[in-house]
Amino acid sequence: MTGTGARWLVGVLVVACVLLAGPSAPEGAYIAKPLPAGAPQEVVPNRVMTWNICNPCKGSGRNVGRAAEIATYAPQVIGLQEACVGDVERIRDHLQYLYGLVYHVEYGSVLRSWSRCGGVPWSPGGFGQAILSAAPMTDPVNVEYPDGGSEDRGYMAVTTLVDGTPVRVFNTHLAQWSQDSVRAKQTAVLAKAVARHDRTIVLGDFNAVPDAAELAVMWGPAADADPECGPSAARTCEPTTDWRSKFDYIFLRGFAPLDHGAHLTPYSDHDLVRADLRRA
C-alpha cells in the first residue's frame, strides 16, 4: 500500500472510531456555567426532579446549559422526557466533570430515531425517557404503551433511594395533548403498575391538565408534590409549560412534599419541576 493510501485508510478508521465511540466521552473543551449563589455543592438526597428537555430543540451548547440547570438544584433523582441517549450521556458527563455531581443512568427508549437523535444510519439514537440517580438503580423495566397515539410512548421504572429510603420511581411521557382517549388507556396501564408498590414516585409529562378525566386514576392513589394542586378545577396548580398549563407532575405515594417549584428555563418549552420530600 502506498503512503497516500495508508494515510487515507487511517483517516477512515479514525472517523469510524469517532462515530462508533459516540458522545459519552467527556467534552473537556466546555467551561462550567456559573451557578446561582446558594446552589448545592452536593446532591440533595431528598430532592427529585422531572423535566421534558424538548426535542427537537436546537442551539449550541444546550447540553451544557441543561446540565447547569440540573446542577443548580442537584436532585437525588431526575426523570427526563423527550431524551436522546446521546444528549443524556453528555448531560451526565457535564454534571460529573463540570460540577462534580455523579449520577447513574437508566434509559426507557421507545424509538430509534435518526431524525430526532442522530447517530449512524445503521444505529440511530434511542429516544424516550431516562432516569438519573445518585444512588444505584435496580430492577429496571421499560414498557411501551399498547397505543402510543401519534408517536410511540411508554414508561420506565427503577428501584433506587430517595432520602435513604428505597422507592420505586416511574418516569413517563403520555400521548400528545389532543389525544385524550389515548392517554386514558395509557394512564390505566401506568396506574396498575404503580398500584403494586406502597412507596412510589411518578415523574413525567402527562400532556394533560389536572382536572382532565384521564388523570383520575392517578389522583386516586397519589398526590402531586404541589400541595395546592389537585383534580378539581377550583384548585390552583403552578403551571409547568411555556403556554402556562400544568402538564408535568411528581405524583407521590408514601412520601410527602416539603418544598416544590417549577422553574422557567431557556432550554425547553417545559419548566424544570423539582420537589423536596420526606417519608410519609
Low-confidence segments: 1-28
Major sheet: 6 strands, mixed
For the secondary structure, the number of strands is 14
Q: Could you estimate the helical fraction of the residues in percent? A: 10-25%
So what's the overall shape? globular
Mean pLDDT: 88
Individual helix count: 6
Task: Indicate the proportion of strand residues.
Answer: 25-35%
What is the distance, rounded to the nearest whole angstrom, between the alpha carbons of the first and last residues?
Answer: 72 Å
Order of neighbouring strands in the sheet with most strands: 3-6-2-1-14-13
What class, by secondary structure content?
A: alpha+beta
Q: What would you report as the Rg, rounded to the nearest angstrom? A: 20 Å
Q: What is the N-to-C succession of helices and strands?
A: HEHEHEHEEEEEEHEHEEEE
